[in-house]
Design a protein that fits this description.
Elements lengths: L1 H6 L2 H15 L7 H10 L14 H13 L3 E7 L5 E7 L3 H9 L5 H9 L1
Antiparallel strand pairs: 1-2
Helix pairs in contact: 2-3, 2-4, 2-5, 3-4, 5-6
């Protein structure tokens, strides 16, 4: 899993980190909306320019690419209105994802925030 995480681009890693945070909080499988909101809440915790913003469509695309790479699992879930929506959760251990991304200077403050919560 380490190589897969390291080979993801910076935005995908940021989205993966948001899913790892939700996973450690017991909030997975999660919908793209919650991943987007979680990522937006941590833009100040990363040491880089904020990717030109965090838009839901960009997050949905990143979630799909991460699932294709085997880093995320998807399952059909129901939204509050009863519509079928894909839910996402990590394919591996959230601690391993956090460990890999903590070695990246730009994400270290976000990882520290997740570990301390």
């Amino acid at each position: 899993m380490r190589d897969q995480v390291q080979s993801a681009d910076a935005f995908e890693q940021f989205v993966l980190l948001a899913v790892a945070e939700l996973e450690t909080a017991g909030e997975t499988p999660t919908h793209s909306y919650h991943v987007t909101q979680t990522a937006k809440a941590h833009l100040a915790d990363i040491d880089r320019q904020p990717f030109g913003g965090v838009e839901r469509q960009k997050v949905i695309s990143a979630l799909g690419r991460l699932a294709d790479k085997g880093l995320l699992l998807t399952e059909q879930t129901k939204s509050a209105t009863g519509k079928g929506r894909p839910g996402y959760k990590l394919a591996g251990d959230p601690e391993e994802v956090l460990e890999v991304l903590s070695a990246t200077d730009e994400f270290e403050p976000y990882v520290d925030a997740v570990w301390s919560s």
